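Example 5.3 — SOS response-associated peptidase
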Amino acid sequence: MCTRFYLDDSIPELKNILEAGTRGSLAKHFLTTHGRPILTSGEVRPTDIVPVIAPNARGQRSVFPMQWGFLARDQRRTLFNARMETAKEKPTFRDAWIHPSWSVKHILRSFYATRLTCV
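Solution (predicted structure tokens):
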């Protein structure tokens, strides 16, 4: 499973999107509660905070800072690995699998893992 990806801030079309993910009250909230910056370039690892494109309350695409991974059912752990063969059956990943419009789009150029290259 691919758990890391790379944000390339040199792509002109992404500059405004990446900047939008660092503005606003939610960005300030993440900085206050997590004490870590929102990453807008370089390697992204599980639990890092990055800009993503997701539907807002009105269903329109917007940019939000989010933590990379799924929050576990106990609300205390972040999960980021799922087998494609069983993701739709696991409670943590099921809704995102069944309702793909609820999932988010990460602003990235490539995924990678230790033994496997994902593109």
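Remark. Residues 4-114 form one domain.
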